[in-house]
Amino acid sequence: HGDVKYGADFSHFDYTNPDAPKGGTLRMHAVGTFDTLNPFILKGVAAAPVSLTYETLTEQSDDEPFSAYGLLAESMELAEDNSFIRFNLRKEARFHDGKPVSPDDVVWSFETLREKGQPGYRAYYNDVERVEKTGDAQVTFFFKTTENKELPLIIGQLPVLAKHYWTQEGRDFTETTLESFPGSGPYMVSDVDPGKSLTLTRNKEYWGADLPVNRGRYNFDVITMDYYRDATVAVEALFADEYDFRQENIAKSWATAYDKAQAVKDGRIKKEVIDHSRPAG
Asked: What is the pTM assigned to this prediction?
């Protein structure tokens, strides 16, 4: 909405370090379990970090209320009366299997998510009348109303999936799956222990590594996500050096659960308050 912080020639987001080294392993955790790698459907419980394997048309910056910059889309054209938004795709964009990201993938993703995805997609995209391939690398979304000023930004959040994979005989988009599917994102699923852990490996051939919206990000070579059935056990697992980072949002735990731990006392675990200016708690 209105002016954006970053100009057309920006090189990276201000909160990233473009010279950050690549490598190493980040060990994360989650509470609960999972039984699918498909986060777009109602059925099943999706593994938490799979969002790093696919991409959207645009990327939202983290230091503005709501501004979006081109990711899969190289440029965007918004109608003066807000009746359509047109995306010109980057011709270098590739899925993990090497196939290019095309307007057909965008059209198929939109229609499939609206028809077969979680019910929220239907409501989220309700003001879109239709989507059409309007060029070799171009796709246009036509709106039912010109009053929804957020709709162009919402469409930019569309996950773009590989049509050629999902339309193969025998594949059913509405069913749970633990088979990794090709995305275009910076990471690929490399190992799955159903319900227990997931391992992602950085795609060193990632097509978008040098884009301004990505520079300085996605630095770990490997990301692991271990699942715990109990939140209390998950805290103790941090003290036992089973994973590297925890975001604590329970005031009682923040006040009482950490300072007694030896790993906190000797500095191996550091407590840090991250200030923000939001009115939320």
From this structure: 0.93
